[in-house]
Amino acid sequence: MIYYADTITKLSADAAGAVIVSGSHGGVYPAYLAAHARAAAVILNDAGVGKDQAGIGSLPYLAELGIAAATVSHWSCRIGSTDDMRARGIVSHCNELAARLGVRAGDACAVAAGKLERAGVSTATPPPIREARELRRTEGGRTLVLIDSASLVEPEDAGQIVVTGSHGGLIGGRPEKALAVDAYAAVYHDAGVGIEDAGIGRLPALEARGIAALTVSAASARIGDARSVLDDGVISFANERALGLGARPGMALAEVLARWRAPAA
Fold it and tell me: Residue 37: inside a domain, yes or no?
């Protein structure tokens, strides 16, 4: 069975034993969620590959657990959209287990998914991952909310600065899913930007809600790792509200956020 999900953070029990085709990035956190759901095999988006090859970090991670996995090119289809993966996605990378089942770079996503239906279900248990949510408070200033996935945002994060490891694309192309709370500012990974500028699709959606929004470049920070986004990230794109607050492409993200979180900001 093939199970489609625009985001791997929202899986039903039907995902167990299935080939999961998801618009999520191909980093370690989505891989963990797939393994936790007992997927037989997985196809994700390579998110521009990026720093430390984080965009395809799922491949060796899942291989260690005995799970076949592949990624589609961010230039072939829109990140965050399984409909587009099915229509246009082209495999860019795969792990050895997927290769043994006949998956090759250049395969259409639908063809690769069909090949992966022959995969057996691994009995391995994914190891615990580090805390994926961290709050850094400043006396009298805004809190930095570091979350490896935008799905981990909480109602209490409204009005704060949310730094995510997630890609900046719209989930299923839906603007209302850009961010679940009205933060002061939100930061995403540009996932290599990709076809039709899909990797930065959340920026105009958040502009319409009055939220400053930025992406950092795939080359500068590891996708799926909010701490790398904060510490290593270089701004690649900013919406009008963020530009009005002094953010500019090429600036270090940490420098900009230090000003935004100060009590006088």
Answer: yes
